[in-house]
Design goal:
The chain has about 270 residues and is mainly beta. It has a single domain, classed as monomeric porin ompg (Porin, Beta Barrel). Helices cover about 5% and strands about 55% of the residues. Strands 1, 2, 3, 4, 5, 6, 7, 8, 9, 10, 11, 12, 13 and 14 form a 14-stranded antiparallel beta sheet that branches. The longest helix is centred in the N-terminal third of the chain and has 14 residues. It is globular, with a radius of gyration of 19 Å.
Length: about 270
């Protein structure tokens, strides 16, 4: 509870300050004035844009298969792992991320573990470019992750960190972005290891309502660096609904390989 208290206090203070703004959590932006629908997934690079004030946005993996060749080699099937977002102000939103159901298998196909996974609480602050009025945009995303999925459980080794997503429009149909992120990861002995990752992504329209992205990501971990190339297709069903198929391909032994199908919508 002590680990969660500062985050809750910050949220309460932030919500209180929204009431003086034109639109806020309790006074939504009119639907006719909504910004372009921006996603934090399926790529690793987050979007610097926030959810419009007073609106809800879901982004999630309907199903994801993971091949992990790290210190414990296993296969995992993730079902309905989602990001639940709420727009607080014009440039702040809050995210609740929960792994609803995971099935872990060893290399022989024997089930190791099943059930819910981690719970993550994030805030996002956009510094500029939220409304598409500039070619670039920048944000910051601090987070804290509770591995048991229960933020109120005592004596669990939480992880925390902060990322800085950036994007740049190239020509209206093509853009690029990147994200440096610093993570503090429990070492299992009551201390934390500092890890870092950097991503670079390019994406845009393929044809009609079909978009693409291609991405490179490098993780600098304690004795366990990871390098991946990622890519995917995103189909815009409507201005407020998207579906996607994507993959992460690990380039070295510690790096996982993933294939997933996703769904995103906002209301």
């Amino acid at each position: 509870m002590k680990q969660l208290a500062p985050t809750l206090v910050c949220l309460v203070m932030l919500v209180n300050t929204t009431l003086a703004q034109r639109y806020h959590l309790f006074k939504p932006v009119p639907r006719a004035e909504l910004r372009e629908f921006a996603l934090d997934r399926p790529d690793v690079t987050e979007s610097p844009q926030t959810v419009d004030a007073g609106h809800f946005q879901f982004e999630g993996d309907v199903v994801k298969w993971v091949k992990d060749n790290g210190s414990v080699s296993k296969r995992t099937l993730n079902i309905w792992n989602g990001i639940y977002k709420f727009g607080l102000t014009n440039n702040w939103d809050v995210h609740f991320i929960y792994e609803a159901y995971n099935l872990d298998y060893n290399n022989d196909g024997d089930k190791i573990e099943e059930g819910g996974g981690a719970f993550t609480l994030r805030l996002k602050r956009n510094f500029w470019g939220n409304d598409g009025d500039t070619k670039t945009a920048l944000g910051v995303i601090p987070y804290v992750t509770f591995p048991t999925g229960n933020p109120f459980e005592k004596n669990q080794d939480v992880a925390f960190g902060v990322g800085f997503p950036f994007s740049c429009d190239i020509n209206g149909k093509l853009g690029w972005g990147g994200q440096p992120q610093f993570d503090f990861v429990p070492d299992g002995e009551g201390n934390y290891d500092l890890s870092f990752f950097q991503s670079v992504v390019i994406g845009g329209t393929v044809i009609g309502n079909l978009d693409f992205y291609a991405e490179a990501v490098g993780y600098v971990l304690k004795g366990d660096d990871q390098f991946l190339v990622n890519g995917g297709l995103i189909y815009n069903v409507s201005p407020n609904v998207k579906v996607d198929v994507a993959t992460n391909i690990g380039l070295n032994t510690p790096s996982p390989t993933r294939v997933y199908l996703g769904l995103s919508f906002r209301i």
